[in-house]
Write a structure and sequence with these properties.
Blueprint: H1 10-26, H2 31-60, E1 62-64, E2 70-72
Antiparallel strand pairs: 1-2
Helix pairs in contact: 1-2
Length: 76
């Protein structure tokens, strides 16, 4: 659970976040562990949002030409 965020794939980060949410929902963690998990979860949520935003920008950069072929529009 302490793996550096930059080494995680989106899918792995999301799976870890889901695990943390389930643990917090159950409410069986000690207070200090719950706070640590919440902090990690917040960082994972931010990381996942960043990855989603990057993916959305890449998809939006794909443009269809008049002849039906696709082209990549340069991102700013």
């Amino acid at each position: 659970m302490t793996q550096d965020l930059n080494t995680l794939s989106f899918e792995d980060a999301l799976a870890e976040l889901e695990t943390i949410v389930r643990q917090l929902e159950v409410g069986q963690l000690r207070l200090e562990d719950a706070i640590t998990s919440y902090e990690r979860g917040a960082a994972l949520r931010q990381y996942c949002q960043k990855k989603l935003d990057e993916a959305e920008a890449r998809v939006q950069a794909i443009v269809q030409r008049a002849d039906g072929t696709l082209d990549a529009k340069p991102m700013d």
